[in-house]
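task queued by scheduler; priority normal; single chain, no ligands, no partner chains; default sampling; output format set to structure tokens
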Amino acid sequence: MKYINVEKENGLAVVTISGLKDLNLFNWEILEEFYDALCDLEKNKEVKCIIITGKGNKIFSAGTELHVEMELEGEEGGRKWSKLGHKITEKMETSSKPIIGAINGYALGGGMEIALGCDILIASKNAKFGLPEVKYGIIPGWGGTQKLVKLIGKGKAMEIILSGDTIDAEEACRLGLVNSIVEDSLEEAKKLGRKIIDNGPISISFAKKLINEAFYRSVDCESETKYFAKCFTTEDQKEGMKSFFEKRKPKFKGR
């Protein structure tokens, strides 16, 4: 694979996102590679636990390469992009194998939403989390509006999503978004992974399934996709993304 690296060792598989511009950004090709890697690992009987991390020591993933979203063809393009993101996070959630996110730096936008698809999150001290989509005239489209509120509560989810601000690892841990903060998130994820795979694989898969069924019972990704797609019919979306590249504050008009 060109952008997704997979290393397997003693029942553990480490999936490393190596995206665009040293920010581990996603585009169509990278997302498809990521999905294929998850499918391959689900079929591999030797793999008992999956770890997802980002290349380098500063970025997990800064989300979508903005040119991709600028080039989406209206509402239908937005719907296809959202559906692809949801297809990946659904594959993560329905995998019979535990998935640990080793968050080794910034997890923003789609990068944070991929993190939210993991079963357990371990953050390095330099980790930052944010869903800045409203700054570009859109909304989180890969599960952010649905999952964050269940993890940290309505008020803080509203604050993070509506402000577009980032939070640091300490705040994320205090809110219950991440399980722990460590010096080296990947090494700590491997330690936890080894502990998990010492246990019964059938009971592990059953426990994951039941916990996720309880968690996702009221998650409505179809509605999120619907409104994400509608954003791409607005002037605000075009202004928000254009202003990013022009390095200026957007002038939203509410239409």
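post-processing summary
- The two ends are 41 Å apart (CA to CA).
- The first strand starts at residue 4 and ends at 9.
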